[in-house]
From TrEMBL:
This is allantoinase. It comes from Frankia canadensis. Catalyzes the reversible cyclization of carbamoyl aspartate to dihydroorotate. The keyword Amino-acid biosynthesis does not apply. It comes from the Bacteria. Homotetramer. Its EC number is 3.5.2.5. One of its GO terms (molecular function) is allantoinase activity. It holds the Pfam family Amidohydro_1.
Amino acid sequence: MSDSAPSGPALADSRLALPRLALSRLALPRLALPERPRVLRSRRVILPDGERPAAVHVEAGRITAVTVLTEAPAGVPVTDLGDLVLMPGVVDSHVHVNEPGRTEWEGFATATRAAAAGGVTTIIDMPLNAIPPTTSLAALEAKRAAAAGQIAVDVGFWGGIIGADTRRQRDLAALHDAGVFGFKAFLAPSGVEEFPHVSMDVLAAAVGHTARMGALTVVHAESPTVLAAAPPVVGRAFASWLASRPPAAEKRAVAGLAALSAATGARLHVLHLSAADALDDVLAARVEGLPLSVETCPHYLTFTAEEVPDGATVFKCAPPIRGRTNQDRLWDALAEGLFAGVVTDHSPSTPAVRQIDTGDFAAAWGGIASVQIGLPAVWTGARARGHSLADVVRWMCTGPADLAGLRAKGRIAVGADADLVVLDPDASFVVEPAMLHHRHPLTPYAGRSLTGLVQATYLRGVRADGNRPPRGRLLAR
């Protein structure tokens, strides 16, 4: 399920079928910046110790020095960004690319072009909704073959947990040896039959195995028992979808994961948390010193249930977008450092699968497509609440990189990859579907004004914005 919901028949790319604005109306002001800068200097560089004036030196794809603003070797060209922000590339550890098998929904070329256009320099692909899912070494090899030569940013992979028998344990070991960044499991139905959910008992058996390998296990945490007792979703009413996924489903599942972490010492991570009620168990686990972490998503921080129109299935995701008071509590938890990161859970699909024409929440596939606009969406909300860009970098760059063990990503520091973003933090724009690079330009952000315009994205020191030739690399843990 994009963490999603029931799927439908596949359709061809809908780009030409959807209304688009003329490109001249979509032009956004951008600077002429070099393809391969040697030194980038700005009065606003986001460093691990905060924002300050600095010059960032790049050679052979790495950051070789961070110096005071005026220092540069003689004869080396310097690109002066003035008051534009220089920040590390965003690391999005929760992206559904869907290729191979459901490439008509999304693929490596389109997903990574969208990522690059939005300042994302690294993604980690979820093990579903591709066919086959990434639950075996052969499936991982198929994913890597499909991605080769297409990717505009660096790409890593999660493996999947769909059982704990001897064969599945061998698959987990082979995937771990091949360099996946950890393993994903669903406690509730995933929405695709080839990736079944597991019971807490089965997850415990699998986690015993992943813990011995030192691997991270990431979990879609909703209790199937609570979901089964909730009222079924009916028709076009968003309130019906919301009632069908109550906060108690997340709270019970997160409590169960905390207990599992306490019993096994395993590293567990709660994906896309939307219910603030469940944060009490996360906090208690942290106080006890348990290795339990949690993430949330831009859409939970941007939209509220009160503003979602009936029939607007582009807002459907699981867990769902909840009310305004709940959103305030998520922002408070971010400020308190409870979240390991903010990641998109990017999960596009076709207009037919999304039930765009019917607006039927019961039949629509769920998932929010936002890898290109997650950074400005979060900055817009953070700025309005008094947070800094240094906070946003911690949530969207350093935090997800640390979660995945990518120490050369998500930070501007000597020795790190020169994955850099030039951001105009004060420029506002209206999201138009025609400016989006992902395969189907369906998004709940359409028509929304956001602040924070990505002027340039650099991948290992070379421009990597949306339409440039792909030069991303496949990553292994």
